[in-house]
Write a structure and sequence with these properties.
This protein has one domain: Hypothetical protein af1432 (Orthogonal Bundle), CATH 1.10.3210.10. Helix 3 packs across helix 6, helix 3 crosses helix 7 and helix 6 crosses helix 7. The protein has twelve helices and two strands; from the N terminus they run H-E-E-H-H-H-H-H-H-H-H-H-H-H. By secondary structure, it is mainly alpha-helical. The protein has a two-stranded antiparallel ribbon with strand order 1-2.
């Protein structure tokens, strides 16, 4: 039982690891909350998917995809220079090895490998849900200043760019939900920060 308890001790740390994204109460989102939101989205969207997925696998991937950050920590996207990404990769690989050394569970090992390879349709869906949760937090955030003016508009420009939208085209319901969210965020950006996000998007289509 010791190895299971040791694993749960590591997993609990995701509740203490915070992302840059803000929530409706103004606080930063925890990585654990992010993973739970992804699983919730998978559940509510399932009836609308055009493709068939192993939904148990999807749920498990949602829950475990960021678990290495319990050890390696989250790195905000705007800080991820090529060198930082290399260092992040090394740290997360070591974290996975440490976790698997404790839990010694082949299914968990397979889940880590599947998400890392990003070849299965389930892992592809989970990556889209990963980005979708960030979109939801942009919509729900109490204050949009962090995506409006932070780092010369890095986050809202990324959010309204074509590359993000293309990630959702494989499932029409995902693209539809994203477009609805982007519309709502655009209204808030205009009202709160006088930023014409839809105009920026149109320039890049």
């Amino acid at each position: 039982m010791k190895h299971i308890v040791d694993f749960l001790t590591i997993a609990e740390k995701l509740e203490c690891e915070y992302r840059l994204t803000r929530m409706s109460d103004g606080e930063c989102q925890s990585v654990a909350s992010h993973s739970w939101n992804m699983a919730t989205m998978a559940m509510v969207l399932q009836p609308y998917f055009q493709n068939d997925y192993d939904m148990q696998r999807v749920m498990e991937l949602c829950l475990i995809h960021d678990l290495p950050e319990a050890i390696a920590h989250d790195v905000p996207l705007h800080e991820q220079t090529p060198q930082v990404r290399r260092e992040k990769r090394v740290a997360e690989t070591a974290a996975v090895k440490q976790i698997l050394g404790i839990v010694q569970n082949e299914r968990i090992a397979d889940l880590f490998a599947e998400y890392d390879a990003r070849q299965s349709k389930e892992s592809h869906l989970v990556k889209a849900l990963d980005v979708m949760d960030t979109a939801v937090q942009h919509m729900c955030a109490k204050d949009l200043a962090y995506i409006g003016s932070f780092n010369d508009g890095f986050y809202w420009k990324l959010f309204f760019g074509d590359e993000i939208a293309k990630m959702f085209d494989f499932e029409p319901v995902l693209r539809g939900v994203l477009d609805e969210i982007r519309g709502r965020v655009a209204v808030r950006l205009k009202e709160e920060l006088n930023i014409d996000a839809l105009g920026y998007k149109n320039e890049n289509t």
